[in-house]
Amino acid sequence: MPSYPSYAESTKQRIVHYVLRNPGHTGGEIALALGLDKSRVNSFLYLEGRRRFGLQDNNWRWSATGVVSRSRRTSGKPS
Q: 26, 40, 41, 72: most buried, per Cβ within 10 A?
C-alpha cells in the first residue's frame, strides 16, 4: 500500500465519527460521503484507524466494535 501524507487531525476525527455513526461502510463509501480521496481514507483506516482509534473491518466494512449489521454485510455477491 503506498504511503500517503497524514490527514489533519480534524479530518481524522471526521472519519472516525463517521464510522462510529455509520458502521458497516467500506472505505470508498466513507470517502464518498465525506468528500475525501478513497486511497487516503483506506490508508488511514488500515494504519492509524486500527492502531490509534481501535477501528475494525469485517469484509472491508468498518466499525468501532467489529460488528457489522446484516443489512450492510449482504451484497448479493458470494464470499
A: 41
- pLDDT, tens digit, 9 for 90 and up, residues 9-23: 999 999 999 999 999
75 band by pLDDT with thresholds 50, 70 and 90: very low
- What are 60's three cell numbers? 472491508
Grid cell locating 63: 466499525
How far CA 27 is from CA of 8, 49, in Å, comes to 18, 11
How many Å apart are CA 78 and CA 23, to the nearest integer? 21
Q: What is the DSSP letter of 53?
A: H
CB neighbour list of residue 28: distance below 8 Å, 6 or more residues apart = 38, 41, 42
Among residues 21, 10, 28, 19, which one has the least CA distance to residue 56?
A: 19
